[in-house]
Amino acid sequence: MTKRQGRLFFIICTLVSATVFIGLTFDSHRRFPGLTNEDKLTPEIIRGKDVWHNSNCINCHTLLGEGGYYAPDLTKITQQRGTPYLTAFLKDPSQFYSEEKHRRLMPNPKLSDAEISEVIAFLDWVGHIDNQGWPPRPIIVSGTTIPGTDVGQPSTHTSVSTDPVAQGEALFRSSPPACSACHSIAPGVNLAGPTLAGLATRAAAIVASPEYKGEAKTSADYIRESITHPSVYLVPGAMYSANNQSFMPDNFATDLEPRQIDSLVAYLETLK
Amino acid sequence: MRYRSQSIAYWYFAIAMCLFGLQLVFGLLSASKYLGPDPLLDFLPFDKTKAIHTNLLIVWVLTGFMGATYYVVPEESRSEIYSVKLAYIQLVAWTLMGVTAVIGYMFGWTAGNKMLEQPFPLKIVIVIVMLMFLYNILMTIRRAGRWTVTEGVLVAGLALAAVLYLPALIEYENYTISIFYRWWTIHLWVEGVWEMIQGGLLAYLLIRLSGADREVMEKWLYVIVGLVFMAGILGTAHHYYWVGVPHYWLPIGGFFSALEPMALLGMAMYAYFAMRRAGFSHPNSLAVHWTIGSAVFTVFGAGLLGFAHTWPSVNKWTHGTLITAMHGHGAFYGAYAMTVLAMISYTLPHLTSDRKVEGNSLGYWAFWMQVMGMFGMTLSFGTAGIGQVYLERILGLGYLDTQLKLQVHFLMLIATASVFAIGAALFIWNFFRTAPRSVAAIDSSTSAPELAPAGHASSAGSG
Fold it and tell me: pLDDT tens across A60-81, in order?
């Protein structure tokens, strides 16, 4: 091979690759509106994107898997946590997680109410982008889908937290027995009890359905009833109940204080 | 050193060394935050230290590239730099930009886009500085009326790096499109035109260090850069798998990413065979270490560790985990940091006074501690990443609970990073140990015989 042929090889390789790449870029632009639901891109969501950038979120978190690898991926976060949870969390993350336990904590981003709702709207829009089904299984923030694997870890401390949602989440992981021992909050992960992912949405549908014979009128009522009287409505499946009796313990109505049940309901209601 | 204006390179390298040191301070700070708890949470949390760590890397490596170019171009074109004054003004503007960015990040002045955190006014300064630089270099070549393939590849790489920065200036409302073009800058830099710069510098060093025939070296340089572009341009697709783009980017990404290590392997073989032919006889064996080291570490860090997680069905599980940090550290260090350190090691005996050509034991300690330290760091990130993928992605343990179980890997990271940092500190100390040569000394040295083996300058092509 001569130097001239070497140069020709370089030019042809570069031109062919660049041409194909630019061609595919044009085609991708044709497809972006459909893949990303561009018609739903409101000014609020665009402002939320600015909040995301201005707060430098990406240098700890990942979004669509891209970012800092120091904090949880947020691609599907709005499908795992409801707006009330995320709002309360963004107002003061230290209420939800303990730096002593997890050895890292999110600093308070100091956002206004409007900014918080904008960034949540942005994250919700991102969560609905068609991204080839990634992640292949839900990435959860904390807790576990495997019973017993968090045994020995101190439960999330509740002493500093005043937010009912945060207290509810702590209780979920610690109340005797811990709800999380039987219920996962990851979609599709059914342990001894069914997954509680999407609970609020499902509860509303159950209350409205003809099969439901209980007293509850709202999803919050239903969640409260399920804690205090687990057998009023039985989730279908032989693994959850027998003889019209739920396998879930029925001690919570007596063992938990009303205030604790309130906070549990507040937390579970955020699971959309 | 034959041309007075080559001494510009010293000051570029000096700034690069300072920023390199600073980068490691923020790197160690970030690593310690993996262990936690973080006493600096409210003043200097991880997002700030990490952004500063990665931005300093980009700035110091580019400073090194520019310094190296100011050294290479006069020799290749046989002419003084067009405007020495402009080169120093450029360096001052560039350094001020870098320092302003770091201080800005500390106080939350950021564009918050990974690797492109520079706020818009600073992005404009970067563009202006790059234009000053390219103007100065192109005017030098034009005035000399002579250029070689080696410097052509080097300068074309730097010019394309400036062009590819332009998409970063535009804001996109659609986050997916924003990601799409972010990679035009970042990926096409590090797996495209920066490799072109690396190839150009490698060719320069090999011709000087091994005395290999320029015609042969430049022929293969074309082939290697051709391979880099063939794989690298379409290899951008491996950043597009899960971000909301059409599905055809997946097989394209898989296929062309698999070709990328080939180009890098080609580069390492290029270096090895050139040196073997010459019998490693150049007196500056420290520079030989860095040159060969860079080519080999690139195959490992960029090629092997990149390929380890780039296949779509693997990346589906590893995407967004510490596996990426493993590859990022190995690749940037091997390909770019080591190339700049090789250039510095080669030029230092010419640029400073009272220094032995063959280097000193401090220099070898710096080399081996850095290489071993970085190897250990990639292993730490790699093992942490494998643990993370298994526990978090496959078994479904929560993110925070998984990170707690990786503490031992973070300890290993800090230990190996400390070895690396000591190696880097030795390199920096060794750099500043002796004063730069005065102009008078340079003038007298121009008549002194060159240190490279005979024949190195015998066949400068006309391109």
Answer: 999 999 999 999 999 999 988 7
- Of B399, B34, B407, the closest CA to residue A142 belongs to B399
- Across the interface, whether the CB atoms of B397 and A73 are under 8 A apart is answered no
Does the predicted TM-score (pTM) go above 0.90? no
- 3-state DSSP call for residue A144? strand
- Residue A150 above 90 pLDDT? no
Which of A41, A138, A143 lies nearest to residue B401, judging by beta carbons?
A143
> Would you say the C-alpha torsion B156, B347, B77, B141 has a positive or negative sign?
positive
Note the pLDDT tens digit of each residue in A189-211: 777 788 898 899 999 999 999 98
Tell me which amino acid residue A207 is.
V
Residue B428 distance to chain A (closest CA, Å) = 28
Complete domains list, chain B, with CATH: 4-437 (1.20.210.10)
Amino acid at B153: V
Tokens of B84: 């020495």
**Residues ≥6 apart with Cβ < 8 Å to B357:** B283, B284, B349, B451
Rounded Cα gap, residues A22 and B425, in angstroms:
44
- pLDDT for position B131: 96
Would you say the C-alpha torsion B296, B302, B306, B307 has a positive or negative sign?
A: negative
Dump pLDDT digits (tens) for B229-264. 999 999 999 999 999 999 999 999 999 999 999 999
Assess A195–B contact: CB distance below 8 Å, yes or no: no
pLDDT band at residue A243 using 50, 70 and 90 as cut-offs? confident
Point out the residue among A5, A70, A144 whose CB comes nearest to the CB of B397.
A144
Cis amide linkage into residue A93, ω under 30° from 0 = no
pLDDT at residue number B447: 45
Three-state DSSP at B167 gives: helix
In chain A, which among 69-88 make CB contacts under 8 A with chain B?
A: 69-73
Q: What is the pLDDT of residues B3-37, one digit of tens each?
A: 999 999 999 999 999 999 999 999 999 999 999 89
Q: Which residues of B touch A81 (CB under 8 A)?
A: none
Q: Do A1 and B395 touch (CB under 8 A)?
A: no
Q: What mean pLDDT do residues B424-437 have?
A: 95
Whole-number Å distance between alpha carbons of B147 and B213: 17
* b/e code B10-20 from CB counts within 10 Å (16+ = b): bbbbbbbbbbb
Per the CB < 8 Å rule, is A69 touching B320?
yes
Q: Which residue has the higher pLDDT, B444 or A100?
A: A100
Q: Does A181 touch chain B (CB under 8 A)?
A: no
Structural domains in chain A? 37-82+108-136 (1.10.760.10), 164-268 (1.10.760.10)
- Alpha helices, H only, B352-406: 361-388, 399-405
What confidence tier does A176 reach under pLDDT thresholds 50, 70, 90? low
Residues A270, A200: contact at Cβ < 8 Å? yes
Question: A6 and chain B: CB distance < 8 Å anywhere?
Answer: yes
Q: B388 is written with which tokens?
A: 């993370």
Q: Which residues of A touch B394 (CB under 8 A)?
A: 137
pLDDT of A145:
62
Q: Which of residues 149-168 of A touch B (CB under 8 A)?
A: 149-150, 153
Tell me the pLDDT tens digit for each residue of B391-426.
Answer: 999 988 889 989 999 999 999 999 999 999 999 999
Secondary structure (3-state) at A246: strand
